[in-house]
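Anyone opening a protein record will find just a pair of labelled lines. The record below illustrates this layout.
***
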Amino acid sequence: MLILTCPCCHVTAEETEFHGGGEAHLKRVGPDGAEGEFESYLFMRQNPKGVHLERWRHVYGCGKWFHMARDTATLEVFGSYAAQTLAPPDHIVDAIRKRHPDWQWPAAS
């Protein structure tokens, strides 16, 4: 079982109080986007074994969305941060790199 902390209301609880919402930091496609781009936005997602940045919602709490970094293989949670953040904050990146020194956020590559 995952123990998560909501960065909005600072409640720490079991994952059953939250709901996963898929991959974080997706770039939305506007009305003028190509069909292939829209299809990619809707259906193509990463499913890595290892570090993954995800969206979560504090369903039985404040109701707000946030992002979280975790390892899908070990279920280790590196931290959570506000959904309005465009990139993982430095303290999250540092926590990830302590365990995975070679890790690079795809958008930074």
Observations:
- The two ends are 32 Å apart (CA to CA).
- The chain has a mean pLDDT of 90.
- The first strand starts at residue 3 and ends at 5.
